[in-house]
């Protein structure tokens, strides 16, 4: 019985840690990845998308690691639009006190 995973995927947030894991896998210092998934909130700073484009072009593609960009919409718009139903952000208006903080 093999203990090897059937699929190796990286949850790629495009921050320091996940970028480092992608770089190490692309260099062969970590096991080869079958892909990386970027869950796009639709409300990331432009620098995140620029960084992700560069990672894909200069690191992932040459190493044969596909990056899958997935999204369920724009988190900001969904949080501010009450018509989105169950996807709406439920924010507490209660301020923590010393007893509950």
Care to count the β-strands?
3
Sheet-strand content, in percent, reads 5-15%
Rg computed from alpha carbons, rounded to a whole number of angstroms: 18 Å
Order of helices and strands: EHEHEH
Computed structural class: alpha/beta
Mean pLDDT reading? 85
Please mark out the parts with pLDDT under 50 across 5 or more consecutive residues, or reply none. none
Topology readout:
Blueprint: E1 9-11, H1 16-27, E2 35-40, H2 46-63, E3 67-71, H3 75-80
Parallel strand pairs: 1-2, 2-3
Helix pairs in contact: 1-2
Structure in a nutshell:
It contains three helices and three strands.
Structure, described:
It is a single chain. With 101 residues, the chain is an alpha/beta fold. The chain contains 3 helices and 3 strands; from the N terminus they run E-H-E-H-E-H. It has a 3-stranded parallel sheet. Helix 1 (16-27) packs parallel to helix 2 (46-63). The protein is globular and about 50 Å long. The model has no long low-confidence stretch (mean pLDDT 85).
């Amino acid at each position: 019985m093999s203990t090897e995973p059937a699929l190796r995927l990286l949850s790629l947030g495009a921050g320091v840690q996940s970028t480092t894991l992608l770089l190490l896998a692309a260099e062969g210092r970590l096991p080869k990845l079958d892909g990386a998934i970027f869950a796009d909130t639709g409300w990331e700073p432009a620098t995140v998308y620029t960084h992700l484009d560069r990672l894909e072009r200069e690191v992932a593609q040459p190493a044969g690691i596909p990056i899958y960009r997935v999204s369920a919409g724009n988190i900001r718009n969904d949080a501010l639009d009450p018509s989105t139903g169950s996807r709406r952000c439920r924010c507490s208006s209660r301020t923590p006190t010393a007893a509950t903080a």
